[in-house]
Amino acid sequence: MPFFDSLAGSALAEILERGAPILGSIKHLDSQTKLSSWMDKYPDETKLVHLNLPGTHDTCTWNYTPELQESLERYTGPIPDSTIYRCQEHSIFQMLNEGIRVFDLRYAWNPGQDTIGFFHSRALLSPTTRMEDVFFGLYHWLDLHPSETVLVSLNYEPGTGTSNDARLQEHLYHILTSSLAQRYWVQAKDTLGTLGEARGKLTLIQRFDFSLLPSDLTERFGIHLGPTSWTDNGKNTEIVYNEATREAAYIEDYYQLPPSPDSYPVTNIDLKFKVVEEHLLRAMSRDYNDQLFITFASAAFQFDEPSLVPKVYAVGNKDEDLKEGVNHKLLSWLQGHQGERLGIILLDFYNVVPNLVEAIVGNPIPSRM
User: Fold this and answer.
1) Could you give the CA distance from residue 190 to residue 62 in angstroms, rounded to a whole number?
2) How far apart are CA 64 and CA 359, in angstroms?
3) Whether the predicted model's global pTM rises above the 0.85 cut
4) Which helix (H) or strand (E) holds 361?
5) CA separation for the pair 4, 65 (Å, rounded)
6) pLDDT digits (tens, 9 = 90+) for 224-251
């Protein structure tokens, strides 16, 4: 009997259907590619910080079309054009099968404030999908791909009109510490460990604080890169997440660029790529051998440069004879630096530039011992 026709399968199918606006459709589960299980070529003892991990910035925005925005205006009120908020085109299930292994998830209360959902700034991405639905989808995909691991960056999204209150934090805590979650999330705290320890599981990058929890809710896991330590618009932020071992994350998150002096988009694209390149070169250095590097290749819309929406930064705009964006430059650069440790690279519209994810994954990385 096919799995989704069984009792357990039917229950899971209902959850995945509710999660589809964020996860993508169940049919995307079957869209296997040569990168669907790319981690199986690495030995178990490989440290996660030694891997090159392609990721997506504002992962959940893939479905944020003008039509969806209009349908959700009763919740959000009038907000700027959907192109300002949309950073992806492929669903989470497609991303997983295309080799993406790091997700940037921004959460807040859904309408009604009884479930947690996903946002990009003021843009509500689905009023009915719950955080648990998305996690169930990830658990199911990992069951189908036991050689793989996925890093999940969770970040509270301000500016949604909802509150990061004690009730939200406690609700999130219980989602992350349920008996099922304990099976699927790496339980180690303040360290990333090895691929063998993480296969078939999720690893938490905690970008939020549990500042309002009751004192008896003390379970913690993952690495904490909290909002007070994360420099806004920073080019190279250092966050020590394990004081005892001095394990640290180095983060480039330079997303708000100044207006270009010539008002031509290529100037800003070149500037953004220069910052990305500098950070990747730092990641290659043996001086940071066992440290985590996170590089955002993405950038945000700015009102001073209205043509520079995230997609134009990422892949250019052929209608304006701007044929290349940051992703094209990054692909060319990566092809000249195969076999180097680069860490996590978070992308917008990765699918538009063929072979970009494959170039990040690259050849097996030499031992950094």
Assistant:
1) 31
2) 27
3) yes
4) helix 356-361
5) 30
6) 999 999 999 999 999 999 999 999 999 9
Q: Nearest 10 degrees: CA dihedral of 78, 103, 327, 313?
A: 20
What does the pLDDT read at residue 30? 80
Quick one: CA dihedral 36, 37, 42, 47, positive or negative?
A: positive
| Cβ contact 297:360 at 8 Å | no
Please list the residues that pair with 239 across neighbouring strands: 249
Write the DSSP string, 42-74: S-TT-BGGGS-EEEETTGGGGG--HHHHHHTHH
Least confident of 51-65, 107-121, 173-187, 255-269: 255-269
Structure tokens at 354: 């063929």
User: What is the identity of the amino acid at 286?
Assistant: R
Strands (E), the chain: 53-56, 102-109, 116-120, 123-124, 150-156, 202-206, 223-224, 237-242, 247-252, 292-296, 344-347
Which among 296, 324, 339, 352 is positioned nearest to 54, based on CA atoms?
296
Q: For residues 38 and 198, what is the distance between their CA atoms, to the nearest angstrom?
A: 14
292 has which bridge partners? 249
Q: Are strands 102-109 and 53-56 parallel, antiparallel or unpaired?
A: parallel
Q: Give residue-wise pLDDT tens across range 171-203.
A: 999 999 999 999 999 999 999 999 999 999 999
